[in-house]
Amino acid sequence: MIHCKPKKSTYFSLTIVLIILLSGLIYLLNDFANSRNFGLIFYLISAPLITLVILMLLVKMMAGYKFISIGKEKITTKIPLRGFTKTYDIKQILAWEEEKVLANKKEFKQITIVFDDKTSFSMSNHEHVNYEDFVGYLTKKAISKKIKAVKTSQKKTS
Fold first, then answer.
1. Which of 47, 64, 81 is the last residue of a domain?
2. Which of 21, 78, 87, 108 is 20 to 30 Å apart from 156, CA to CA?
3. CB 156 within 8 A of CB 106
4. Residue 153's pLDDT band (boundaries 50, 70, 90)?
5. Do 33 and 54 have their domain in common?
6. Those residues with Cβ within 8 angstroms of residue 26's Cβ, 6 or more apart along the chain or in another chain
């Protein structure tokens, strides 16, 4: 079985950023309550902005916390925060696609799998371990379900 789970380093980094943002928000609100070193407009803009960034980061962390295992002709998906676990046969895959993007000399890859009950599952190589092994197994067992990438070319008009 190949088990793909979230990388600890990714969640550690996101947690550190979250702690820094929370301490900044706490400092800002404490400063407003006690000494008011900045103008009112600064507090009215920065506190909601920091809160919004914190909420978006928390949603990103919670949405990305998922596990997938593949082997013995079965795929098991698990989303612990929703209490969701489901096992599929390889035959139940309707389609799958791997997207690749090159940015800053690094290749970001994401795979999306759609099952016959119309649920889908996505994961990326920068957020999950054993990504390459998972794609290799899926390529061997379900190559006919892979969606071919359509390359579009832009014509220059003069």
1. 64
2. 108
3. no
4. very low
5. yes
6. none
CA distance 94 to 6: 25
Torsion of Cα atoms, 15 then 17 then 21 then 23, to 10°: 70
Query: Tell me, what amino acid is at 133?
Result: D
**Paired tokens of 126:** 């920068």
Pair 54, 86 in one domain: no
**156 part of a folded domain:** no
Q: Is the dihedral of CA 60, 66, 71, 74 positive or negative?
A: negative
- pLDDT tier, 102 (very low <50, low <70, confident <90, very high otherwise): confident
* pLDDT one-digit tens code per residue, 45-101: 999 999 999 999 999 899 888 999 999 999 999 999 888 899 999 999 999 999 988
User: Residue 155 pLDDT more than 90?
Assistant: no
Q: Which domain holds residue 131?
A: 67-145
